Amino acid sequence: MEKIAFLGLGRMGLPMARRLAAAGYPLTVWNRTPGRSDGLTEAADPAGAVAGAGIVVTMLSDPQAAAEVAGRFTAALAPGTLWIDMSSIGPRALAGLRERLPEGVALVDAPVLGSVGPAARGELTVYAGGEDADLERAEPVLSRLGRVRHCGGPGAGAALKVVVMGAIVTSVAVLDEVLSVAGELGVPQEQALEVLAAGPLAGVVARARSAESDFPVRLAAKDLALAGGGPLLAAARRALLADPSIADRDLSAVVRALRED
Questions:
Q1: What share of the chain is helix, strand, coil (3-state, %, to 5)?
Q2: 146-152 and 106-109 strand pairing
Q3: Which letter does DSSP use for residue 150 in this model?
Q4: What is the rounded CA–CA span in Å between residue 72 and residue 120?
Q5: What is the pLDDT along the chain (261 residues), one digit of tens a residue?
Q6: pTM for this model (two decimals)
Q7: Which end of the chain has fewer CB atoms within 10 angstroms, the N or the C?
C-alpha cells in the first residue's frame, strides 16, 4: 500500500485520515493548527509530510488555504506522486493548483458531499475528476472514504461539487423564507414542514432538520461564492452572511424557525 500524506485535519479531514490509517495505509498527517493528529504520525510542516509519499491528499477549507498550503509542499513532490485534492475550492482554484505541478506529478480533484458522520463511516459521496489512469490509481483510496462518482476529466469533480452545493445551500436558505411566509399566513410550521417533506422538497427539509450534519454556515457561503454571479445564489449568500452569530453553526441554523438559540 502506498504511503499517504494527508494535509488538513479539520471537521472532515480527521475522520477521513483515521479511515485511511485503519485500512492499513502508511500515513503521515499535517494540520495548520498542530496537535490535532489524534495519535496519527504528524509532520512538522507540509513538505515534511509529503516526503516519500506516493499519494498526497489535501482537505482544506477554501481556495486561499489550498493555495497557501500548496505553496509549502509542491516543490517537494517527487515525480510519480499522485495528489488528490478533496477540498471544495471550485475549478478555477483547482486550475491554479494544477499550474504548480512539478514535472511527473498528477492531480485528481475529488471534493466530497456529506458531513462528519458519513466521513467517519466511509459513506461520503466523492466527485472525482482527472485523467483515467490517475482516477484508477486514486480509486482504492477514495473508495475507503465513500461512494466514488467519476465525473470526467481534470476539474470535472470540482465543477460538479459547485453545482450541487449551489442547489443545496440555496434551497435551505429559501426554506427559511418559506417558513416565514407560512407564519405570516397562519399556516402551522409543522403542517408546512409535513407537506413539504412529502413532496419534491423532502431532501431539503431533511437537510434542514438534520441533527448529525456539521457544515458551518461560513463554508456554505464560501461554496455559493464559488458558484459566481446569479441573483438567486447571491441573495442566498447574503442571507447566510446576515447573521454573524451563526457563522460556525451548521447550515440548518439559517432556518430560523427550526433552530434552538
A1: 50, 15, 35
A2: unpaired
A3: E
A4: 28
A5: 899 999 999 999 999 999 999 999 999 999 999 988 989 999 999 999 999 999 999 999 999 999 999 999 999 999 999 999 999 999 999 999 999 999 999 999 999 999 999 999 999 999 999 999 999 999 999 999 999 999 999 999 999 999 999 999 999 999 999 999 999 999 999 999 999 999 999 999 999 999 889 999 999 999 999 998 789 999 999 999 999 999 999 999 999 988 877
A6: 0.94
A7: C
